[in-house]
Design a protein that fits this description.
By secondary structure, the chain is mainly alpha-helical. It contains two helices and no strands. The chain is elongated. This is DUF5302 domain-containing protein.
Amino acid sequence: MTQQSGADRTSEQDEQISDAKAKMREALERKAEREHPTAQGHRNTGAVHGSEVDGPGGRRVFRRKSV
């Protein structure tokens, strides 16, 4: 095993940290591009998503239980 001086270790650590920050920044930019509203995107992006609102039968009806 070779021993590294303190200065060598810090420069390597700094390089690793800057690489990690660059990767994180790129990932955030890609995510922001995906979420950016465009003319081709869906018009209605309300809070409700999923199979409950997409399928046949239209709107779901909830009724109170009779006593």
